[in-house]
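Re: your question from the hallway

Yes, I did run it. Sequences:
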Amino acid sequence: MTAVHPAWLPDDLLAPLGSRRVRVLGAGLLVETVRAEIRRAVALHGGQLVDDPGSADVVLAATDDDSADGVEEYVVSRSGGVTTVSGAGAGLLHGLFHLVRLGEAAFGPDRPTERHAPAYPLRMLDHWDNVDVHPVMGQVERGYSGGSIFYADGRVRADLSRVAEYGRLLAAVGINRVAINNVNVHRREARLLTDDLAGVARIADVLRPWGIGVHLSVSFNSPVLLGGLATADPLDPGVQEWWARTTARVYEAVPDFGGYVVKADSEGRPGPFAYGRDHADGANLLARAVAPFGGTVHWRAFVYDHRQDWRDRSTDRARAAYDHFVPLDGRFDDNVVLQVKHGPMDFQVREPLSPVLAAMPRTHLAVELQVTQEYTGQQRHVCYLGPAWSELLGFRLRGPGGATVAEDVGGVVAVSNVGDDRFWTGHPLAQANLYALGRMAWDPASDPATVLDEWIAMTFPGAAPGIGATLHRIMDGSWRTYEDYTAPLGVGFMVRPGHHYGPDVDGYEYTPWGTYHFADRDGVGVDRSVATGTGFAGQYPPHWAAVYGSVTRCPDELLLFFHHVPYTHVLRSGSTVIQHVYDTHVEGVEEVERMVAAWAGTEGAVPDDVFVEVRERLAEQLRSAREWRDQLCAYFFRKSGIPDAKGRVAVR
Amino acid sequence: MTAVHPAWLPDDLLAPLGSRRVRVLGAGLLVETVRAEIRRAVALHGGQLVDDPGSADVVLAATDDDSADGVEEYVVSRSGGVTTVSGAGAGLLHGLFHLVRLGEAAFGPDRPTERHAPAYPLRMLDHWDNVDVHPVMGQVERGYSGGSIFYADGRVRADLSRVAEYGRLLAAVGINRVAINNVNVHRREARLLTDDLAGVARIADVLRPWGIGVHLSVSFNSPVLLGGLATADPLDPGVQEWWARTTARVYEAVPDFGGYVVKADSEGRPGPFAYGRDHADGANLLARAVAPFGGTVHWRAFVYDHRQDWRDRSTDRARAAYDHFVPLDGRFDDNVVLQVKHGPMDFQVREPLSPVLAAMPRTHLAVELQVTQEYTGQQRHVCYLGPAWSELLGFRLRGPGGATVAEDVGGVVAVSNVGDDRFWTGHPLAQANLYALGRMAWDPASDPATVLDEWIAMTFPGAAPGIGATLHRIMDGSWRTYEDYTAPLGVGFMVRPGHHYGPDVDGYEYTPWGTYHFADRDGVGVDRSVATGTGFAGQYPPHWAAVYGSVTRCPDELLLFFHHVPYTHVLRSGSTVIQHVYDTHVEGVEEVERMVAAWAGTEGAVPDDVFVEVRERLAEQLRSAREWRDQLCAYFFRKSGIPDAKGRVAVR
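Structure:
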């Protein structure tokens, strides 16, 4: 059993389409992809690829559309017993997968014409893959699904068939861009930009038929590292010339190259600060190099002081992105996308939205999400993130009646959870996160529960009735369950430093990374109010500044993110902080116990390999959840001296 | 400036001897070493190696002594203007270095005959060197002095000249055995026993002229790993035969091979438990393989459960060695040495003695010390360990009037702090620990302050007056200073898990490694009493069982090791626990500040490279000591709510 798992495109799923007579009209690379998919489907299921207009059950018709906005949309209808999809190349491909999702429903009664178009042209995955294997981080930084599908033995893989399969899966959910290397660009990986262009071009060749463009993460220090220059100063003409020349060579190799992704002046990465320049200078340097070719620079806003003094309570990592970037609004070139993590910290299970997302109207923004579960169980825990993303994409950061985050940004970028693991994502159920990311980047208003059911139906076609409901029950609330048994009330972190797995309440409390809870014998939380704290709450538009700044109005789930309160503080829920810690941790573990029991009931109804793999990972999730519960409860009991009012917490 | 530092044998030191007329009598490998040393000394300093009996100022005369006990002793005297040393081969070599230490004092007025003999025939260094570089631990596990002097590029070094220099330094302090590889025997290192015998023999050839025997750490699983057997069961005849055959080949390559060092059933290493056998079965298996050749097995008593449940307060890692080994007393073959860490835990700056050292009268014991500063500043901090070793070797574990630990054991084994660093030990002043270890293994009754002065005089000959006193002031109390600013009152650990450097009060508190402090809002410490605790105190002979078991009689420095007490508990010193934490941490840092200032005064009076290196490391020591102070004080203030009565501690 070493075959790669088909994820949401098992062959059975192609039966409704593949058993019919299908006509494909048009020419071009992506239309040929559609034709090849049909050929595969009909070969499997007895249908036929036909040329005769009269005999087709399905018509997939390519239209000409040279507009950048229209190229990905498609129109679908059914009339007179014929289902018709039309779209330009990429749009037709998306339409094809729309039919796959619909299944037999695509061939029932007539349907009115529907037009489908993505919310954004930017729907991207960032791979934190290294060419080399990092001694601590492994080959994929924060990767929990084996090695890289792009690289092996210190170079781009000779056999990229797995990348082609990946492209097909991504196309089916609407992802259209991939950055193929880690934003922490180490010495070896820097050379992808120059020495390895042939390999990069081969990856681009494999992804292009799926409508997916390739981007590279680059080191800001490349002119020094690769070019032998004395400086990487963005205002230095020699540096500008080096980037122009180097970029021209990239486009010679990959004419539709997407552009650069840059992590600069962050966690030790080089950047413009070394030369007394700001991040607009830095981003525009690269933007001007790719502009002649239509490329984009993704500049990450994840910039903060990771060498701060924990003794200094006035320094607040949460403030950093806003403080660094908002003053630069309007200074970025038009082909710069500022890539902003959804929260002010770092992909915690619960954070407020980043106030940057509402504060830079004259800058192209993309919101950055994390599909790989660095802080949400590392694909050893079931944690379906759709509800979290839905909540944050629909959040009205400017206040009630204002735009949603989804309306304010120009794209969604997410860190991939894929590796060379046979299930793609380590945990088989973590495939649902990749699926949901794609679907919600296409339509941020998607209902995450519906997306989950869609994923279940596609991944387990033909499963016995009730199995889908069981999977839904296990997965739909799993994000809130994970929140329940980990760090409480929005305080975040409390993980083991370095690998970030498992509890360590004081793990970051006295470190230079700047993520603290200040728990003492009286209370816990970080005062980020304007009146008495770090002032971070004041970075929000007025409505949320007032809500977050008020200890009584602040939502419970973010209380400890914004306020330091006594353990006896009464929450909006009516419980106290300390009792909330006990309750959520006890109940979170009980919920995992229910997940384990529910999964046991799927034996025989899901493929054996999936059953066994998930069962083993659920066992680890339960062990880990109990560890979280017991450490958190013991820690806060030892500090507060207040016992669980319900008498369940025994570990002290 | 890349030459290797001469440590305690700078050429200048040889002037008194090297400027005289020296006669060497006798033949044999070690006598030739003596002759070569004299040849080198006189070449440097204008003396002469003479044959004429009448003209010699110094006579070094080899005697025949075939007894194992007498072979290392020497006799020294001065009469009629001639200094005479006699001894068998190794003894004569020790006598030569005795003259070097004496300097001009060896050539003053006549001196009566003195006989010098080591306290033990077993004075050994364990190197935790790997052949390969471990991705996390580096090449030398717990090594803070660069790579290995034995291995490079995945094999035994071609050039072993550095090892020869090392042998000379060790001979000068009386070390006579070296285990050349890590007790955590990884896959590659296991093959030293078989595939790499030629390399091991070359190392033995280089150390043999210095009277130093070579030992190997081996994997208990070798019969499976290297021999392809299905089992490593010590009672299996095939396993016994494999070890006999393999050992015979080792002795063919190295006829005076010392024997095996084994870490079994400890921290994941294989051992006899897997086969339902005990550690006597395991040790005797190997002992019988080396016995025909006169070899020894060093079997480590460092066996404990590193997967224990922190929730279970009855499990106590401190108990483990006693519980595992004392029942086996009398069952070990005569050529087994049970190697017992000095304390029940793991080389903490302060621990009680291991009760095993007084509990196995029918077993050969060696006490294991740690020269490498894993838990005592990792050679970034000055921490002269002579006073600690003196205290523990002179401790009367059976009670007042009983034998000292030094009298109870049959040898001293210590983990080396040497690497391929140009100062040998990373921190130049850490050389003093290696020096003191050798001198105190030779004579455990040595006064550590005298040994320190001896080291200073040898390492810095000709330094300006006052410099020796400054060095003495910096170093002599540095162990207690380190204790002051780290974990208080014997509680131990509180270090960052994994690398063990720097403070992390809760670092091990909720882990499976079993080393906790149970600090809550009321008090701190581990109850190891018989009456209410884990019972560990009851493993001691009656006097100490009573003392340690009593919260009022227990010495302050071990109080939290044996008892859980309120922060307001009044110590024997008159201070409270919480005030003691504040006082020692504030004062410990002040002492480091004085060390920094004192060292500044040595500029120009010690070699520049030493000056700069020590200055840089002292700066890190001061930074780290402040971090310890502030984290410890903040942690215990947050827990206790009791402020520093003297108002100095501001960090909360």
